[in-house]
Amino acid sequence: MNQSSTLVSGFCWQLLLQDSGTIDLRNIIQARCIFIKIISSTLNCRQSKYRRMTSKTLKSRSNVLLVRQSRLTPGNGVLLFYQSIKNKKTCIFLQECDVQLFSPSGLIENPIKSAATSNTQSCRVFIDAPPAFRIQIRALSVLNNTDAKSTYILIRDVDALKMTIFRGTRLFLWSSSGSRAEVEFHGKYQQIKGMFRAEYSYINPSEKQPV
Predict the structure, then answer these.
(1) What is the pTM of this model?
(2) Record's superkingdom (predicted)?
(3) Nearest to 182 by CA among 143, 138, 129, 125
(4) Which site from 67, 78, 111, 120 is most exposed, i.e. has the minimal number of CB atoms within 10 Å?
């Protein structure tokens, strides 16, 4: 990943992965400009520090930050400088088995916990797409032979604040209404590798086709 500070252009509706850079929002002519900044490509307790032209510093609480600006008159807006910094606090909301995905498409396999990991929280897969896109998940194999209610997959549509639970061995096709999704694994899924496999892809809402 590029560690240097760069001027980021053409960022509207994009997913930004650089560790640092300068974003010029002063001459946006679109009705809305929304983009997502990923502070780090790994879940390693990083956060962002943003500084505006007024020298005010804002800090994020996680490594994902959504920036939204409505259209202003030309010349107005803000100039942002961002930088990834190490969060000195313990990331109690993250598990060692959590995974974060940024590619336009790929495979999902249930992550498992180590023997020393606490059972109080589940393993999760985070998927972040550019704001202009949606996320589609197609289950390829579900090897869940237990009837235990504690073994299931929960998919969270983050922007819509909706959750869908899948139990049993039925294959499914799921689509988000926003650009962020979380796949949460419970019960046996956290113990046996390969119980669940799926493919995910970004979807262009206007075309309704995978990117």
Answers:
(1) 0.72
(2) Eukaryota
(3) 125
(4) 120
